[in-house]
Structures are given as structure tokens and as C-alpha cells.
Amino acid sequence: MTSTIHGHGNGHGQGGASMPGRSLVTRLRSLMPLLGEHRRLITVAYLAGVLHQLLLLASSGIGVYVVARAATGASLDQLTGWLVVLGCLILPLVVLSIADSTYAHVAAFRALADTRAKVYAAFDRLSPGYLLERRSGDLGSAAVSDVEQIELFFAHTLSPLAVASTVPVATTVVLGWFHWSLACVLVPVLVLLASVPAWLRRRAELHGHELRDSLGRMSADSTDTFQGLRELVNFGAHAQRLRLLRTQSVRLGKAKSAHGRRAGIEYAATDTIALLGILAVLVLGARLVVAGDLDRSLFPVAVVLASMAMLPVLKVTEVARELSIVAASADRLNTLLDAPAPVSDLVDQAPSGPVEAHVRFDAVTFAYRGNPRPAVREVSFEIRPGETVALVGRSGAGKSTCANLLLRFWDVTAGSVSVGGHDVRDFPQQDLRSLMTLVPQDTFLFNTSLRDNIRLGRADATDGEIEAAARAAQAHEFITTLPDGYDTIAGELGARMSGGQRQRIAIARALLKDAPILVMDEAVSNLDAASEQAVTRAMEEARHGRTTLVIAHRLSTVRTADRIVVMSDGRVAETGTHEELLARNGAYVELLASQLEGFRS
Fold first, then answer.
1. If DSSP states are collapsed to H, E and C, what string results for 199-240?
2. Distance of CA 329 to the CA centre of its chain
3. Exposure pattern of 64-92 as b/e (b: 16+ CB <10 Å)?
4. Angle ∠(572,577,580) on CA atoms, nearest 5
């Protein structure tokens, strides 16, 4: 194990902010960039949809005209030409209908796949600071449910909206050619139909936000419940949790009911306007026929065309009833995608040449967002290459904050954290974190094999290297006793493993990564004596030859460190070896005494 690090690589950061309070159109328009390179497919779908509707209008009009002429005594020879035209329209109608639906959905599904990739990239960019402030279930809802919701906009709104803005115009022109008064009757009906969603826009937006928020909360609470089933069983808290889920379910039901009532009002309004419009054209057309101003054969054609002119508008208004939910999903997605990262890369390349694994905190002060009181204040200490420094103190003293600042999960408010004499901000994040390995207090295991969980430390590791890391981490023995050995599935959140087993898997990951700087955050807390001994041996192996920061409170872990930094209320209270600190009879002794008293009680 060497004590130098070779810098390399590049990176970038990005940020932005969402803008609440925008109009529905503006919020939906914000989804357009998500189409990316798939705009051409939507354009093809739009053209196919418009052409399909125009040919459908033509074929319907011709068909009705043929029936009307036949009913008034026209001969077969007089109708043959029109029948041939109808026959020629069949194939284009089929092809254009397939093209409209296919290209719109292909574009939508590809855009959804790209959007999910952007969401996952945002999770990576915002981790962990931004994500720690939000519930995992709610974030999961954004990654799945909200992304799926925008399919309605891409596949079922854009092309129909284009059709609705084209076909009625063409129909109005044709009816105006039949008689100007027919167009005059149809235009206000179409305008009224198109304006129905605007009447209830405010309520629609309110209901859409409430529904998406309720779904997100329900998803988050359900996720918490599934993940905490063992605790619920242990404490007999089923009824308490069930009451919470019922409350959220009632809230969700109310949101859906409110959304449904508003949609029902819109259905009633649009159906009433459409029927009155058709009735108006029917009455006017009949009067025109009686007056001799309209050919009898064109009368049914006019009624059918007027009805068909309303269909695209009705379809868009039907979709528009759900657009408030889509807009709410768009807001949630844009808030996530545009959220400023807690930290961003300030450079493209790491410092050139070897970088010594020497960590230094120099007058570091840091306050979490929204909390005016600093979590750490003017903290200074160093960890020399190959040295192990233990950071100890009461809960809330700032120990884990120091580890997070070293890993650059957040940036310092004042002072600096450096590695090898270089400020951590002088490294791209990927390069900086490739130099370090974190063994956290709560190890996360994916619901896959133990082999793959260890391989997380280095993706290209061989099975032999994985086994060697597991042996060094004191994990090989218990893994081989499992029925499937290294192929044993860890279970969701590692539920099939004990706390000590999960910690040893985490240490195996760290050994496999072989980074020169190791951060161990309460790695042996909450373990029984046997597990603690095994994990402690694994920690000693992991620390060998590495620059190590250990956050711990157990004496067995602390006393083996080369130096101990005692923190109190966000400051460094004292520094020294175990023996030196005992001799001073200061903050360290008080800390040990309080732990011993707590153990006795």
C-alpha cells in the first residue's frame, strides 16, 4: 500500500432553479427540452395525425354525400367516381393512423427513458446533501410515477393538439363554402369547447398539485412501512402505522375525488356545448335547405363535418383534464433536474503528479443550510500518511460533519480541508472520492448477491480478488457457511445479514477498492461482542498502511488510534494519544466517564 496518489480525470457541475407560479402552458412547455433528439418523431406524428384527420374528414364527407345522393335517386354511374375516391383513401387512412400512433408513442417512450437517465444523473449530482433532505419514497415516486405521467403529454397531447388546431379550421372553411352562416354558427361553438379547461384552470392546478403530493407522500410512507416491518413487529406498532397509512389514503382519496368532480364538470360542459353546437348546425342547415340556399345532398354532409370538427377539440379537452397532474409532475421533475448541487466541480483536472495521502483540517467552519448555528467551528487537525486518527465526542459534536466535509459532500463555510496539500475543491469530485473509501455506520447492501455487493468496491475485480478482500475483512468464513456462498442474495437493505456481517461486507468493499484514505464512521456501533471482535480485526486489516479517520466512541476502537481528536460543541477540545489524554484529565476523561456511567445505568 503506497502513501501517494496520482491525480487524473475530469468533471463538471451544473445547477439551476425551478420557477413556481408559472402558467399551465409555460409549465408544460418546460417539458419540451426532454424530447431532445426525438422532436423529429413528434413532428412526423403531427404531420401524420393532421393528414389522417383531413383524409378522414374527406372520406366521411364523401361517404355521407354518396348516401345522400343515392337516397335522392342518383344512378350508380353518377356515384362510381366518388366510390373510387373512397376506395383510394382506405390505405392512406390506415397507414397514417398507424404512423400517428406509432411515432408519437416511440418518441414518448424514448423521451421517458432519457428523462429517467437524467433523473438518475440528478440523483448522482445532488448526492448526498440534497437527497438527505427528502424522503426516498418521494424521490422514487419522482423517478417512476412522475416520469410515467409525462407520457400523457408526449404521446397523447402534442399531436392531438396540433390536429385540434388544424382540422377545425379546415372544416370551418368547407362549411363556409357550403354557406357562410354555417361557419358563423360553428366557430363560437369550437371556441367555447376549447375554452372549457380554462374555466376551471385554477382548480385544476390546485387539484393536480394536491394529487401528485398525496401520491408522493403515500409512496414515501408505504416505502417506510415496508422497510420498517421488522421494527413494527418488534414494537407492536402495526396499529399506529396503519392509522398513518389510512390518513394518507383518505387524503389521497379526497384529492382523487376532487379531481374527479372537476373532471365530471368539464365532461358535462363539453358534452352540452358539443350537443348544442350540433343542434344549431342541424337547425340552421334544415332552414337553409327549406329556403333553397343549401343543396339537400350537402345537408347531412354539413352536419357530419360539424360533428367531426368538434372531435379533435373534445379529445384535447379530455386530455387537458389530466394536464394539471402532468404539470404538477413536470414541476416536481424540473425542481429535481434544476436543483443546484450542494457542491460542484470547480476544476476539470486533479492536481498533476503524486499527491500524498495527508489530510488536514485548517480552521474549518461549516453550517448546514437553514441552520444559522455552525455544526463545526474553527476545527483544525491533521492525519499524516499511514496514521490513524480517531474523532470522538458526544452526539452532535460534529464528528460525522468532518467526515462529510473530507469526502466533500458539502463545502466548508470557512477554512479549508486539504489532501496532500491541495484543497479538496481543487479536485473533481470523482477524482477526490476515488482516493477515499467510506465505511459507514449503516451499511447498505443491494438486493443482489454478496459477490456483487463486494464488487461494488471495484467493478472489474475477479472472483479471486473478491474472496481475498472478504478473507481480509473476516467475512469469508461466514459467507462460505451460507447455502449459496458468495451467490447468496443479501435481501432488501441486507435484511438477511446481521449487523456485523453487513459491516464486514462493507469493509471487504473498502479493501477491494484499495483507496489510500479510509474513513470509518462508527463502524462497530450497535454490534454484539462477538461481531465487534470480528469487525475490529477487519478494521485493523483495512487500516494497515492507510491514512485513516475513525469516528468512534467505543474505547476498544479509540485506544488503538495513533492520535485522538476530542470534539465538543463543534470545536476541537483536545488532541493527543489515549495515554496523554488520560493524563490531562480533561474532556476525553469526562467523555469516557459519561459512557461508563451510561453503561452501568
1. HCHHHHHHHHHHHHHHHHHHHHHHHHHHHCHHHHHHHCCHHH
2. 11
3. bbbebbeeeeeeeeebeeeeeebeebeee
4. 95
Structural domain including 140 reads 24-338
Q: What are 555-587's pLDDT values in tens digits?
A: 767 888 889 999 989 999 999 998 999 999 888
Which among 291, 311, 338 is the end of a domain? 338
Buried-exposed string 189-227: b where 16+ CB fall within 10 A, e elsewhere: bbebbbebbeebeeebbbbbbbbbbbbbbbbbbbbbbee
Helix, strand, coil share of the chain (percent; to 5): 65, 10, 25
User: Mean pLDDT, to the nearest integer, of 350-354?
Assistant: 83
List the grid coordinates of 201.
384552470
Statement to judge: residues 161 and 35 lie in one domain: yes
Arithmetic mean of pLDDT, 416-424: 93
Q: Pick from 271, 303, 338: which residue ends a domain?
A: 338
Residue type, 470: A
> Which three cell numbers mark 115?
428523462
HSE-up of 154 (CA within 13 Å, CB side)? 31
Total domain count, the chain: 2
- The residue assigned the cell 387512412 is 93
* Residue 257 identity (one-letter amino acid): S
Q: Please tell me the number of Cα atoms within 13 Å of 571 on its side-chain side.
A: 6
Whether 147 and 116 have beta carbons less than 8 Å apart is answered as yes
